[in-house]
């Protein structure tokens, strides 16, 4: 079962993080193409622009998706490692109707993605 303190700590870290730094981290771990996809934007160059300190910021809905992705990334990479976390984001997931978490984030199904991540970390992902 995920540590409640870890979940709370990751939520706090993500909430306090400047959106430019948050996107910079996601770009480093997932790549700007996947970040654009999960944010629900067509321009694959936007995540690179969002990651610059003086660059534009994402609109509210893409930012919600980005913050959820960052939270989930933090949980998974802490519980497993970065390679497992990346594979989890892009792979078909039985808890998500065999869709990838990236696509579910794009669709805005944030609770389903968090629940799937929790199940994976608890070892109940079947």
TrEMBL record:
Q: What is this protein called?
A: Antitoxin Xre/MbcA/ParS-like toxin-binding domain-containing protein
Query: Can you name the source organism?
Result: Mycobacterium shottsii
